[in-house]
Amino acid sequence: MAIQPTPESHRDFTCEILGIAVLMVLSAISHFWYLMIGFGVLAAVVVAAVSCYVLALRARTEILQRLAQPVALQNTGRNSA
């Protein structure tokens, strides 16, 4: 006599598989946004550092030019008294 398969022995795991797939996709999207936020913060830090470097370089050049060529005092024609 053969054992008859019961309906419970042929369970359908479609919902469980789809649930795991959905969780994996949502997790991947979540990590994607974490990466994008991280890249944005990194880009902001790089831009700030480059801006500070350029500002310091321009200030240094300006100071050195002023020290190398001092502006002579000009007589405007007015009397000081």
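[next item in queue]
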Amino acid sequence: MVAIPYLMQQHHATSGKENLLISHVTTSSCNPVSWQAFFDHMVTYQNRFPYENRTSKAQMTVHDQLQNYNFSYKFKNKLPVTSLYYLTRIVGTKKFSNSVSKLRQAVDNLG
């Protein structure tokens, strides 16, 4: 597994430098890395070296149960989009209302 973000953080922590050219990391029983730690390093990397046109900070939540994931998806995605959908029916332009309608449909299809 290639994990540039993980190795970038390790390199920065030990040397104080951010100029690592090549990185290849694998995990094993001798050098264990949990999925949570791996994703934490990915998020740190994305926030330290953001994409040019990003709209917000990178964040990730790992759920160990499907029930928790479904609740989180509804709370973080469906609820805000559905609220916005009904709000645009009262106020907002037709173009914006149509855009929100497409967004709502996409969120419903994913969850």
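[queue empty]
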